[in-house]
Amino acid sequence: MLKKILFASMLLLAIVGCKTKTAFNYNEDFVKKEKELMPEMTKTENSVRKFLASEQFDSIGAAGAHMEKLIDAQLQKINDSPAPDVPGSEDFKKACVRYFSFIKSMYTGYKNFGYAKTDESRNEEMTKLRDIVNEKTTEMAAIKNAQLKYSSANGFKIEQ
Predict the structure, then answer these.
(1) Domain locations along the chain
(2) pTM for this predicted structure
(3) What number of CA atoms fall less than 13 Å from residue 109's CA on the CB side?
(4) Phi then psi dihedrals of residue 140, to 5 deg
């Protein structure tokens, strides 16, 4: 009897440990996708500043379109991969999609601003872009909260 209880306890610990590792790996996959974009995002931001200073609007549009494609590729990977069978994974996946969609919207704003045909439409696009950028803090907090909730539900800690 004692052997059966001990075996059942060890089996339960192994199952819980595997689920925690699965959840942790899913979170790390999100972090990896975000980090893969960072060098190109930094490069694009620096280029856009230079293009704006010299009023190279088509170049701003092209830079935004380029980033849209890169972010779309990451979004496609997220959408194509199923969430693991662990607590909160579907909600975390939705939060990841929302976060990457938000980042994409900033670059869509660059594209629309750069490709605008008149000063009036460019000003309208700049206003929309400012509104999007003003949401950045909220979106960053939302993904961080989603990560914390997910990690808490699955027994692992994330780097703060």
Answers:
(1) 21-154
(2) 0.85
(3) 20
(4) -65, -40
